[in-house]
Amino acid sequence: MDAELRFALESRGPSVRWMAGAELETLARQAGRLGADPNALPVAIFEMGEVERVGDPLFGAIYRLGAIADARFAILPVAARVQASEEDPGRVRAHLNVALLDTRSGRVLWQGILEGAPGAVDSPALIASMAERVAARLLP
Questions:
Q1: Domain range holding 67?
Q2: Alpha-helical regions (H) of the chain
Q3: Residues contacting residue 66 through CB under 8 Å, at least 6 positions apart
Q4: Which of 26, 31, 64, 135 has its CA 20 to 30 A from that of 88?
Q5: Which pLDDT tens digit goes with each residue over 101-131?
Q6: What are the tens digits of pLDDT across the range 68-98?
Q7: Phi and psi (nearest 5°) for 3?
Q8: In the chain, how many domains are there?
Q9: Cα–chain center distance at 75
């Protein structure tokens, strides 16, 4: 998903600097105790409903990752699921619960569940469509 999301964001906004995956993990590892594990963020608060601002421990982790990556905003994937497509039998749709946060204040700028286009379970297009939906929502 990281590569597809990076491509979709950079296609829509060439000035967007996207950092994810291995690059962010390397920075966090180099920061040692000052960093945070980008793969183990406590995101359960987003599954309970609408959130206006995140508190600790998530805020502390996002703040530290934002500082070491020199990033003002963070796209936080909360949960992903695949569900059978109602209008296209035999195909599925990907759903992604995602949030956009201000890394300095913990304020949630946007949160939602986005749905990709129907596709085959093993199709790369399923993930590409989801990434494009995220990019279209954040960079119209």
A1: 2-138
A2: 2-12, 21-31, 58-69, 124-138
A3: 72, 74, 103, 104
A4: 135
A5: 999 999 999 999 999 898 888 888 889 999 9
A6: 999 999 999 999 898 888 877 888 988 999 9
A7: -65, -40
A8: 1
A9: 4
